[in-house]
Design goal:
single chain, 292 residues, alpha+beta, BirA Bifunctional Protein, domain 2, SH3 type barrels, 2 domains, 7-stranded mixed β-sheet, 5 helices, globular, binds biotin, ligase, biotin, biotin--[biotin carboxyl-carrier protein] ligase activity
Length: 292
């Protein structure tokens, strides 16, 4: 099991406001500090690559070849970054934190759907710890003030060494308004008037993720019940009118009322509650609600 200690990291502002033209002075990650044999992050092996197609693809390949859990690959630039539902995830070089973590959870596969929620929750906690008003959007996004700042893509990989999960995280750090793909997205720099140091932020993110992962693996059903409560409290989706596009081209409209002990979103409509295991959620404004 991966276990790595909590680190106190000071996040310093180093870049100009991202609202202006794209920053040209984006400092590289400190790969020496990150890769120093787990010195900063015991239990993890961090590799920084200048450019790759997708860190999820790269880590999945390593998982198939038998790599043990704890590998983290961070890319300064992805040329074919993958998002959920076959979407693309594009960020300019050094403007984001784009990385993937290889895990081999010992818990039953039925519990694995917790992984994206657990990881998104860890990103939200880390951002709140450095002063951002971050919330999670079920199941895979992290928002600041209703705008998406981070997305997660968790993929299962089968290998002779057993099943693995690749947890991919993309967090917009110094991305300017004009570099963002949609107006509903944001970056830390846009929210705070300057970008944090990405190395320190990555260390903090990985430490928080490691803590949550260890507690989940060790805690069984009680830990999942606690996680459901804590996730729901940090979830911007809960309490909202939502439209959920379900995998079988069906759509569900209703009010999100909570998250159950399996991580499913509970959606209430006409007195009936549906537990949603997978779907694309839209937070619906009142005027967009369908006529009953
Ligand atoms: O919001 C989404 O749809 C998920 C985006 C996930 C992007 C990250 S960036 C690091 C990792 N590598 C990928 O190709 N995708 C994930």
């Amino acid at each position: 099991m991966v276990s790595f200690r909590r680190l106190e990291v000071t996040i310093v502002t180093v870049s100009p406001a991202a609202d202006e033209s794209p920053a040209t002075d984006r400092p590289p990650l400190d790969s020496t500090a990150l890769s120093a044999d787990g010195a900063l992050l015991p239990g993890l092996r961090v590799e920084v690559v200048e450019e790759t197609g997708s860190t999820n693809a790269l880590v999945a390949e390593r998982a198939r070849a038998g790599e043990p859990e704890g590998l983290v690959v961070v890319a300064e630039h992805q040329t074919a970054g993958r998002g959920r539902l076959d979407r693309r995830w594009e960020t300019p070089p050094r403007a984001a934190l784009t990385f993937s973590v290889l895990l081999r959870p010992s818990v039953a596969p039925a519990s694995w759907p917790w992984l994206p929620l657990l990881a998104g929750h860890a990103v939200g906690k880390t951002l709140r710890a450095v002063g951002h008003d971050a919330a999670v959007k079920w199941p895979n996004d992290v928002l600041i003030d209703g705008r998406k700042v981070a997305g997660l893509l968790v993929e299962r990989v089968d290998s002779p060494a057993g099943p693995a999960a690749v947890v991919g995280i993309g967090l917009n750090v110094s991305t300017s308004r004009q570099e963002l793909p949609v107006p509903e997205a944001t970056s830390l720099a846009l929210e705070a008037g300057g970008a944090p140091d990405r190395t320190a932020l990555l260390v903090d993110l990985l430490a928080t993720l490691g803590e949550s992962y260890a507690a989940w693996q060790a805690g069984g059903a009680a830990a999942e019940a606690r996680l459901a409560e804590s996730y729901a409290a940090a979830c911007d989706t809960v309490g909202r009118e939502v439209r959920v596009d379900l995998p079988a081209a069906q759509t569900l409209h209703g009010r999100a009322t909570g998250v159950d002990s399996r991580g499913r979103l509970l959606v209430e409509h006409d007195g009936t509650t549906t537990a949603v295991a997978a779907g694309d959620v839209v937070h619906v404004r009142a005027q967009e609600r369908p006529q009953d």
